[in-house]
Amino acid sequence: MAIEILMPALSPTMEEGTLAKWLVKEGDAVKSGQIIAEIETDKATMEFEAVDEGTVGAILVPEGAQGVKVGTVIATLSGEDEAAAPAKVSPTPNATPAPAAPAAAPPPPPKAAVPAEAPDWPAGTPLKTMTVREALREAMAEEMRADGTVFLMGEEVGEYQGAYKISQGLLDEFGPKRVIDTPITEMGFAGIGVGAAWGGLRPIVEFMTFNFAMQAIDHIINSAAKTNYMSGGQLPCSIVFRGPNGAAARVAAQHSQDYAAWYAAIPGLSVVQPYSAADAKGLLKTAIRNPNPVIFLENEILYGRTFEVPDLPDFTVPFGKARIARAGTDVTIVSFGIGMAHSLDAAERLAAEGIEAEVIDLRTLRPLDYETVLASVRKTNRCVTVEEGFPVGSIGNHLAAVIMQQAFDDLDAPVVNCTGKDVPMPYAANLEKHALITVPEVMAAVKSVLYR
Amino acid sequence: MASRKPAEAGIEAAVEKGGISNLSKDELLKHYRDMLLIRRFEEKAGQLYGMGLIGGFCHLYIGQEAVVVGLEACTKPGDKRITSYRDHGHMLASGMEARGVMAELTGREGGYSKGKGGSMHMFSKEKHFYGGHGIVGAQVPLGAGLALSDWYKGNDNVTFTYFGDGAANQGQVYETYNMAELWGLPVIFVIENNQYAMGTSVKRSTKSTTLYGRGLAYGIPGEQVDGMDVLAVKAAGERAVAHARAGKGPYILEVMTYRYRGHSMSDPAKYRTREEVQKMKDEKDAIEHVRDLLVSGGLATDDDLKAIDREIKAIVSDSADFAKDSPEPDASELWTDIYA
Q1: Sheet with strand B159-164: strands edge to edge
Q2: Is a pLDDT exceeding 70 seen at residue B289?
Q3: Side by side, which strands form the sheet with A16-22?
Q4: Cβ distance A207 to A296 under 8 Å?
């Protein structure tokens, strides 16, 4: 019986990949452990080893094929005693048919939202599509070209090309003095970054994930955020702390935390959590130029998503300006980061049921655009907040308090906060789904404030 | 030089240069004056604390004056310094005004931080004094970061990063040693070993009591210095500066010193005997040592020194008056300087 070789999952968030190269051909004998193919994930090009010994029967997915789903049968291997004849492939539950090369076009980018006010770019601006990952890299590269004091430091940012490929190519362009690989020593390099900022540089400190920034949080808060105040304005600290925040996929409690509400509580910090690639680019450029410490919270799942980005030589997005991502009249949904994906999805499904939700992307959590939220709530009279973080002391809790104080008479229902659950993130796939915010939960919350 | 035994006495160091008589009279007088300013200033601060004019934490530098004064004598314009919360001496030695420091202690508008930082958080960008930090050990990576800024710009400035024997047990110190040597940062780590981390003696904190030696594990040279001898401190400081300024990376000075007062104003200091403190004052006092050198070397008379004493007293008294008269910060200051 032929052994099926399946497209492997090579990272926690990988759902599909490119079969970059076959290193064997049909009829070749392979040994266990032999490298048989190169597979490109969203993060890196990985070598793929044969698990079993045998002879390559049929190669079912040609090299160059993109968008090959994890679990697809990509080749067959016959055992030692079998003839190396191309084997028939029996469909397996988790294997989808291999797409013909070149693979189907990537899914279209989400519909460009129609900003109801203050668009971030002039009408008629040409747009290009890019991933959040590419947008972040482009923002850093542009700012590093424009300002020699901007440099990047962190774990694996240089020679490895970035643990999540955000800094790919930057070492080649800017050299090792401006793309500094650090040892695994978060507290130390966060402190060094703050000192370097006081010395007149503009460091971008990458945390491989914000979970590890807990090792460094003393410097983020006590050193970076407070010193301008404690020095009577003598020592501002122009530094960006950036990296993925929140849950990725199946990485359990220590690697899944959303810190948005923690950092947003601290005067002296600016806190950004973009959703779209355009915001990722425009806000990161603004963050790098900002004279204050900026917490720039990214999301691993969003890195590979594609959006339209204005094709402008110097595109920036200001802090403190929320974006109305979807106009609506019945209810206001306020979210940020990956919560926007759930919110926009829920809004589309609710529209099919005749409910028009206005969806606001806060984009920056400090400063926070209260006015846009309050104006929307005064119009819709109902509000649901959506975020992935813990429920106690959430951004939604804060917004609910502000709305209650400033728009109490406009409310037709209590504000509902949709958040992650009040539990450490579990590993099991089903439990993890329960712990995170879901589209049905958002829809149910919206219906509850509409008394439907 | 990888390391040295407890350093030569200052006089020997002086002799190497051709003898005390050839030492600049002005230099010795400056050391005397600078150390005396710190001591009288701190005594006054202690007095104002007792009167309720200074609040919160207040950590006095009395006894340790030779450390900063000796090292400041090795600096050039552009060099940076950073320390922890026992910081008044470092500010005065770096040239910050006594008035501004004292007014910060009293929490007044005329203070270096407009009254918003207090004893532990004062800064002067003009004098390249970067604080003034209240979290034990945090200033160590911050100091290495300041050094990184000069390394990045390619100049020959160095950063003096001061910390105590207590901070020497913080993990981030060793994270910083590792990166500073890895990248060759121009930073001089100054361990002010006053033998007590608050109330815990070095011997009760670690079996590895030769603190500069820990840098050797990271490839950082260092030495132990008699911190009660300003000339020995300066001589060691010059070796450290030469190393760092030449682009050879960090250097560690473990300066053996002693604080006469408690850890803070509220410390009853039961962890050591009165006799121990008195013995240090009688036998090792840094200011008396320089006074002896000046007088026995025929470089100054008692009258010369009394004139300096009067000058210092006037400066300190003026700073106290200023600190009492300066108004409290306007209530609107609550909301300024949060963001640049």
Answers
A1: B3-4, B222-226, B251-256, B187-193, B159-164, B80-82
A2: yes
A3: A45-49, A35-40, A16-22, A65-69
A4: no
B144 in reach of chain A (CB within 8 A) = yes
Between CA A31 and CA A36, with CA A34 as vertex, the angle to 5 degrees is: 110
Contact state of B149 with A201 under an 8 Å Cβ cutoff: yes
- Please tell me the least confidently modeled range out of A147-156, B9-18, B92-101, B299-308: B9-18
Long-range contacts formed by A372-376: CB under 8 A, 24+ apart: A372/A321, A372/A322, A372/A324, A373/A322, A373/A332, A373/A334, A373/A399, A373/A402, A373/A403, A374/A402, A374/A403, A374/A406, A374/A407, A376/A324, A376/A332, A376/A334
Alpha helices in A175-314 (DSSP H): 186-198, 217-218, 227-230, 260-264, 277-289
Radius of gyration over alpha carbons of chain A, in Å? 24
User: What string of H, E and C letters represents the secondary structure of B317-337?
Assistant: HHHHHHHHHCCCCCHHHHHCC
List of chain A residues whose C-beta atoms are within 8 Å of the C-beta of residue B158: none
Q: Which fold has domain A127-310?
A: Rossmann fold (3.40.50)
A417: Cα within 13 Å, side-chain hemisphere? 20
- pLDDT computed for residue A80 by the predictor: 59
Measured CA to CA in angstroms, residue B75 lies from A2, A257, B78, B237, B240 at distances of 76, 46, 8, 9, 11
Write down the mean pLDDT value for chain B. 93
User: Is A82 a residue whose pLDDT tops 60?
Assistant: no
CATH for A3-78 is 2.40.50.100
Owner of token pair 């988790």: A94
Chain B residue numbers with beta carbons less than 8 Å from the beta carbon of A192 are 141-142, 144-145, 148, 176, 179
Give me the mean pLDDT over the A239-263 stretch: 96
Tens digits of per-residue pLDDT, B250-264? Answer: 999 999 999 999 999
Second-level CATH architecture of A323-449: 3-Layer(aba) Sandwich (3.40)
B3-323 CATH choice from 3.20.20.150, 3.40.50.620, 3.40.50.970, 3.30.479.10: 3.40.50.970
| ipTM of model | 0.92
B340:A228 CB<8 A: yes
A232/chain B closest Cα distance in angstroms = 4
Band of the pLDDT at B22, cuts 50, 70, 90? low
Q: Does residue B116 register a pLDDT over 50?
A: yes
Query: How much is the pLDDT for A89?
Result: 45
Strand partners, B288: none
pLDDT score for A126: 94
Query: CA separation (Å) from A59 to A22, A48, A100, A302?
Result: 9, 14, 12, 32
Q: Nearest Cα to A264, choosing from A282, A277, A245?
A: A245
Q: Do the Cβ atoms of A201 and B122 come within 8 Å?
A: no
Listing DSSP states for A94-150 in one string gives T-PPPPPSSPPPPPPPPPPP--SSS-SS-TT--EEEEEHHHHHHHHHHHHHHH-TTE
| Residue contact B141–A230, C-beta within 8 A | no
Pairing, β A416-418 against β A383-386 = parallel
Q: What is the pLDDT of residue A102?
A: 44
Q: Where are the domains of chain B?
A: 3-323
CA-to-CA distance for B129 and A328, rounded, in angstroms?
Answer: 55
DSSP A215-245: GGHHIIIIIIITHHHHTTTS-----EEEEE-
Segment holding B174, helix H or strand E? helix B171-183
DSSP assigned state of A82 = S
Q: Any CB–CB contact under 8 A between B100 and chain A?
A: no
The average pLDDT across B237-254 equals: 98
**Per-residue CA distances from A164 to A18, A157, A158 (Å):** 17, 9, 12
Domain range summary for chain A, segments of one domain joined by +: 3-78, 127-310, 323-449
A127-310 against A323-449: fold identical: yes
